Amino acid sequence: MSGAGNREAVFPTRQSLGLMKSKLKGAQTGHDLLKRKSEALTKRIDEAKRKMGRVMQIAAFSLAEVTYAVGGDIGYQVQESAKSARFRVRTKQENVSGVFLPAFESYTTDGNNDFGLTGLGKGGQQVQRCRETYARAVETLVELASLQTAFVILDEVIKVVNRRDINSELDELDREEFFRLKKVQNKKQRDTAAQDAEMRVKREAAEKAEAASGATSSDKENESGTGDILGESEDADVIF
Amino acid sequence: MAAPASAYKDRQFLAVIGDEDSVTGLLLAGIGHVTSPPDSQKNFLVVDSKTENAAIEEAFNRFTTERKDIGILLINQHIAERIRHRVDTYTAAFPALLEIPSKDHPYDPEKDSVLRRVRRLFGE
After folding, report:
1. What is the pLDDT of residue A192?
2. Given pLDDT bands bounded at 50, 70 and 90, which one contains residue A188?
């Protein structure tokens, strides 16, 4: 209990205690669920990333083999002869519980081969093997990219949903508070109006009684001094 | 919330920003593409120690925001490190940004912007 500053403003009643208890329970259940989901997702992404590390290492090794076999750097030649992508991706959508998650799918277009001449002199076999290795590596990368995009979009969706829920909850609370204040105000207004009316009636009564007593006092003055007060209160009662 | 089809329909290429070995390997796999002239654009950038950070950033911008035909952008982790502020602030779903290891720099999950986002989201 550190933050006394961000404590929620709660009206201390038994009803709101019950309300808060159910709220807490809901929040805990939701948190547990999210946590389990997150662990699964993090594990999958983590695994995929590790796999990528291994695959890329193997691919780099096979490229080193090529460099050795060809007897020189083929980087420049490869960069110059790249013209049209053989390896492409296709995006499709998957509907996961109302949220559309895009997924990448790799495919190779047939027919064009930019590197027909690479390794023609020597090391052709190594080049071929290297290409296959890298193609597999890229497939892994595409898989990972799908996973990652799914995560990014899910992240957005979760944030939006959270925000929406919180906003509606806050609005609800605001409305409740506003309604409560209005009620209080109404009651107060009614009370003051009633009090005013009462006061006015009392004052009028007092005035009338005074006038009446003024009239009678001259008559009764001779009889007794105390009868004055008695007469006044009786008159007031009659008017009520 | 579904991303509009136009956001990814035409995205069929992979792009790569990397050191020479990574780019060469990926090109051998067949991801290299040069658009038809007159404004022929390559979808790869070779970065070495002499490449300016501004040039990397410019390529990053070109691949992520200007070009609409790139589905996945691969970038070597040690190069992503050089433009880390840009990589970390990049949150769009398309193109997907993927940090890959290079021959000289083994993969470090701690630096990966997405994995860090995963951790941050779940408060680990």
Report:
1. 93
2. very high
Checking phi first, is residue B2 left (phi over 0); if not, alpha (psi -120 to 50) or beta? beta
Helix, strand, coil abundance in chain A, percent, nearest 5: 70, 10, 20
To the nearest whole angstrom, how far is the Cα of B117 from the nearest Cα of chain A?
9
Determine the Cα angle at A130 with ends A54 and A67, to 5°. 105
Interface test with B, best of A84, A148, A153, A156 (most B CBs within 10 A): A148
Asked if the Cβ–Cβ distance from B25 to A130 is below 8 Å, we say yes
Compute the CA torsion angle A190, A193, A199, A201 (nearest 10 deg): -110
Give A161-172 pLDDT, tens digit per residue.
777 767 777 788
Whether A129 contacts chain B with CB within 8 A: no
Q: A78–B24: do the CB atoms touch at under 8 Å?
A: yes
Q: Which residues contact A26 (CB under 8 A, 6 or more apart)?
A: none
| Cβ contact A160–B91 (<8 Å) | no
pLDDT, tens digit, for every residue of A15-49? 888 888 898 888 888 777 777 776 777 778 778 87
B46 touches chain A (CB under 8 A): yes
Q: Do B8 and A91 touch (CB under 8 A)?
A: yes
Are residues B20 and B50 in contact, defined by beta-carbon separation less than 8 angstroms?
A: no
Q: Distance (Å, rounded) from C-alpha B117 to C-alpha A97?
A: 23
- State what percent of residues in chain A have pLDDT above 70: 76
Name every chain A residue with its beta carbon within 8 A of the beta carbon of B78: none
How large is the C-alpha radius of gyration of chain A?
A: 44
Are the C-beta atoms of residues A85 and B32 closer than 8 Å to each other? yes
